[in-house]
Amino acid sequence: MRVLVCTDSFGDTLSATEASSTIADHIATHFGVETEVVPLSDGGPGFLQCMKSVLSGIEHPVTVTSALHSMTPASWFESDGVAYIESADICGLHLVERKDPLRSTTFGVGEVVRLIIESGITHIRIGLGGVASNDAGAGMLAALGARSTPSDALRGGGIALSSLNSLDLSEALNIVQGVEIEILSDVENPLLGPRGASRTYAEQKGASPLQIEELEMSLQHFTNIVGLDSHRKNPAVALGAGAAGGLGYGFLSLGAKRQSGFAYVAELQQLETRIQAADLVITGEGMFDWKTLDGKVVSGLAQLALKHGKPIVVLAGQVSLGRRDWQTIGVNATFAMVDDAPLEQCFSQPHQVLRTTASRMARTWLR
Asked: Which of 197, 227, 261 is the last residue of a domain?
């Protein structure tokens, strides 16, 4: 039996490579199946690792501004004249010691973009997702030269945008002129509204219900000042504007193009060919919930497995979707780590608990 194991990251606990390898090694050793590991990403955490596993190139270490305004090590990857950035590697939620969604910034992302452009590279692909910030990319724009009144309004996080009186994007637009910027994400949420960045994702970044509404109003004020783009369109309503706390909006305001992160990674990994050669596909993520249905690794992979008539099972830290919901996207079975151990142990001993969950799955699916 040939099993393809290709998970996303499990939140803060396991990278996509660690989770996939843990499952594959365990079932190969204890259940005698042939396994293949293909770590995946939709542009969020693990995106750079996926790129480096497929492409040959050079990694460039940098030190830039973190989500909480200190200095943090990060990197960008260069391959065949294209630069790759992972926003979660710079201002990721997993990197912060304390959650502060009101004041977290994307300034460091802009710093990396600027360094890349100054190096002479004119094609940049940026993976979006998993960030601690909710500033609509304002910090990123400031790092690229955008100016505001007050002068520190763009750097102070999403809540500081409520004090914004004026904005000048001319220098930022000048810096990126002639540079092809692609944002990679499967989040299709707009910036504002019930499915926007604040009301959909700010809670997991630590925002209270009141803070969520404060951020919503602050970002609304920001978009009123930014206005329409050069094509007389409102980037706030574009697909993916709400990705990465609205970082998608910031890049779209500079003329960036968006594409599916999962589709891009899947094509590089020749995923369809590997699915066709497998008897079973195993995937997973930290939280298998309704956000998965918005276009994440698991839902994208399930569609490909369904297309080729291959069974697919999900191993996740927690499963909050009902059977009808996950069957609708093509998933055949789900297994939650919290059914095998307390939540605290899932965080403190993720490898051990994931192996236990993999054994439970294997007794049904690998007989």
From this structure: 261
Q: What are phi and psi of 282, to 5 degrees?
A: -115, 130
The count of structural domains within the chain is 2
Question: How far, in whole angstroms, is CA 130 from its chain's centroid?
Answer: 5
How many whole angstroms separate alpha carbon 158 and alpha carbon 246?
Answer: 10
CA 98/CA 45 separation, integer angstroms? 18
Cα separation, 56 vs 66, in Å, equals 27
pLDDT digit string, tens, across residues 203-259: 999 999 999 999 999 999 999 999 988 788 899 999 999 999 999 999 999 999 999
CB 41 within 8 A of CB 89: no
Please identify, among 230, 261, 292, the residue that sits at the C-terminal boundary of a domain.
261
Same domain, 229 and 246: yes
The verdict on 25 and 84 lying in the same domain is: no
Question: Quick one: which of 173, 299, 158 has its CA closest to 222?
Answer: 158
Q: Which two tokens stand for residue 165?
A: 């009186």
Residues 101, 84: Cα–Cα separation, whole Å: 25
Give the domain range for residue 120: 47-261
Q: What is the CATH number of the domain that holds 136?
A: 3.90.1510.10
Q: Which amino acid is at 53?
A: S
> Per residue in 41-100, pLDDT tens?
889 888 998 899 889 999 999 999 999 999 999 999 999 999 999 999 999 998 999 999
